[in-house]
Structure formats: C-alpha cells, structure tokens
Write a structure and sequence with these properties.
Length: 124
C-alpha cells in the first residue's frame, strides 16, 4: 500500500522561507514523477511544481517560478519543495502526489497517490 507523508509546513511572515518534505513508501519511488499541489480555502486545487522520476526535469506554475525549487532524493524516497520569498497568496494546504505522468497542471487521472497535506500560512 502506497503511503505519502508531507511535513514542514507552518506559519511564516511574508518574505521568509520554508522547506516542505514528502516521503513515499510502498512503491519504487525512483520510477515515478512527483508533484506538489496546493489548495486554498474556497479555491480549486492547483499544481505548484513537478519533477521527473530521475530529477532531471522540473516544471513550475508561473506564480512560483523563481521562488520555489523542487528536488528529490531517490535514495531516501523523499521529495522536497524549497519555498523562498513567500507571499500571503501562497497560503494553502500543500499536497504531495505520486504521478503517473509528468506535468504541473492538476489532472486527477495523472495522480497515483496523495498525501494528507501540510498547511502553509504566510502572514502579510
């Protein structure tokens, strides 16, 4: 059974940084692209960033380009999202997902497994 667990969320002030982590078990982690998604209250879930199975390819939503960096350590079955220069509008629940295919856009049929989410709150 696949398990996906996020950590690292919290409350920060605008301009500060956070690093999210996600560990996945019950699957061969290095075989799957991975992604970060987020959902703010009253809004639809949206893609934030994705990374290929090897880590050589990445993609980002326009709203986070230049501020967020996705990476992975296949030896540790762990995915990361380094978030710098955080803005109030980045406030959301952040979800890690195991993907069937590479792509930053949110498409339910692309998602193999979800984590429970970790809350990021940025005060202005």
């Amino acid at each position: 059974q696949v398990q996906v667990v996020e950590s690292g969320g919290g409350l920060v002030q605008a301009g500060e940084s956070l690093r999210l982590s996600c560990t996945a078990s019950g699957l061969t982690f290095r075989n799957y692209p991975m992604g970060w998604f987020r959902q703010a209250p009253g809004q639809e879930r949206e893609g934030v960033s994705c990374i290929s199975s090897s880590g050589r390819s990445t993609d980002y939503a326009d709203s986070v380009k230049g501020r967020f960096t996705i990476s992975r350590d296949n030896a540790k079955n762990t995915l990361y999202l380094q978030m710098n220069s955080l803005k109030h509008e980045d406030t959301a629940m952040y979800y890690c997902a195991v993907l069937y295919s590479f792509g930053v856009d949110y498409a339910p049929d692309r998602i193999k497994s979800w984590g429970q989410g970790t809350q990021v709150t940025v005060s202005s």
